[in-house]
Amino acid sequence: MEQRKRYKTYIHGFDENISGGIPEGNVVLIAGTAGTMKSSIAYHLLYRNALNNDISGMYISLEQSKQSLMRQMHNLGFGNSTKGKVEILDLGQLRLKTEGSDWMDTFKYAIEESKKRMGYELLVIDSLGALNLIAKFTEPRENIFRLFEWLKSMELTTLIISEMPVGAFSYYGGRDEDFLADGIVHLKMVEVGDTDVQRRLRCVKMRETDHSSTYYSFYYKDNDFYVTRAISDF
Q1: Residue 47 domain-assigned?
Q2: For the chain, which terminal residue's Cβ has fewer other Cβ atoms within 10 angstroms, N or C?
Q3: pTM higher than 0.90 for the full model?
Q4: Listing from the earlier edge strand, what are the strands of the sheet with 216-221?
Q5: Is residue 197 part of a domain?
Q6: pLDDT tens per residue across span 6-22
Q7: In sequence order, which residues have a C-beta less than 8 Å from that of residue 11 and are 6 or more positions away?
């Protein structure tokens, strides 16, 4: 059977753990608490694939303004060298004008029209919590299933950022989102010793992929992201 195309995350040491990258057409949750760099690694994936592979990507922000997100990514070293290949679409203001089913129609229309214009293959939606809040899904399981299937019908590989509460948790996105997503990448903060706090990353699941569920130490250095084997975890 022919293997699907894969998109590298460009997290050094991690792509090797997920058979080379995220399978084309997958819907993947990037889940974690505040400060774990979820938005940064999602944008980084778009940035590196545009820079290295000439693959276009769209980042849809439902909370953070475009200007704020651009400043954040510029400070990480992800500059303007991908202009025309990576775009940020700020849809947060739409919530002031329309909500519920009308908002979802506008949301889908924005994706369709921007894809016609750019022909992008990679999409980031930031965030799942904002999407649930604005869309006001009446039947979450059915609505999420239809959304995920629609994204796949658009021939998009999609990363959806999911903010998790600090402390004990039962789900990475939500009961339905966890089950329906093709992949889940989890980031967390752990205390190491008395004063140090480090980030950890692991692939919880990725369909059609042979992967380990081990947590890796995750860090940013010189405009790039890296994972290494975690010596200890607490």
Answers
A1: yes
A2: N
A3: yes
A4: 11-12, 224-229, 216-221, 196-206, 183-192, 27-32, 157-163, 122-126, 57-61, 86-90
A5: no
A6: 999 999 999 999 999 99
A7: 41, 44, 201, 218, 225, 226, 227
